[in-house]
Amino acid sequence: MELILEKEQLMLLKELQQNTSDRDTYQRLTTLLMLHNKFSAQQISENLGIAPSTVNRHYHQYIASKNFDTYLEHHYKPCVGKLTELELQAVKSYLEANSCHSSLQVLSYIITTFGVVYKPDSVIALLHRLGFVYKKTKLVSSKANLAKQEEFIVNFREIERNLAENEVILFGHGVHPHHNTESTYAWIAKGKEKEMLSNTGRVRININGAINPANPTEIVYHECHTIDAITTIVWLKLIEAAYPQKKTIHPLRRSDLR
What we know:
It contains 10 helices and 8 strands. By secondary structure, the protein is α/β, with parallel strands linked by helices. Helix 1 (7-19) packs antiparallel against helix 2 and helix 3 packs across helix 4.
């Protein structure tokens, strides 16, 4: 028996395998993974404690399926009736608005939002029922929005034109310089792409920084382990200390350009 699975299929099978609480489901998933890894039916039988005929049945059930998604839909049907149609639409909206890299993230959302508990493997089946598949996100260039750029310049010039002696303009933002952004797997609507902004490099640091456009040598920054409310307050106090004579500080953010 020979079985060759795509990388996306392997990732999904492994997530199913790790989260299922059903013994038979675990055996079916592991059988497919071991066949892909060139284990013989006898080796699989001995390792899983199942008959060689069972290995053969799992294999032929997969081969008989029209495609990978059809196989999953046939064998992993979710518990129905737990969520209303309105709640199911809310789950779809959540998945479309966020990059959910694990079914456990979706499970947490369902429990927190609706107070409904699913088994992890039932959540995976529910995701398929809603039309989502586990595949790689798509990297796209993180270019700024041209319209936002033009609007930003107009606003900046207006503030600059009316700037008082005791005021200052600062460009500020929290940044996370890093390299080699990699596309990861997530639950994505079937037939659609989930785009991720790409960067380069591997090492990541976290910096809150501000620069005076009228005098670019004036920089106030705070490097921290993570950017949160506390470290942002520390950074703002550093800015206040750097401009003790200024009554008003006009903050312009990089996010205004996207």
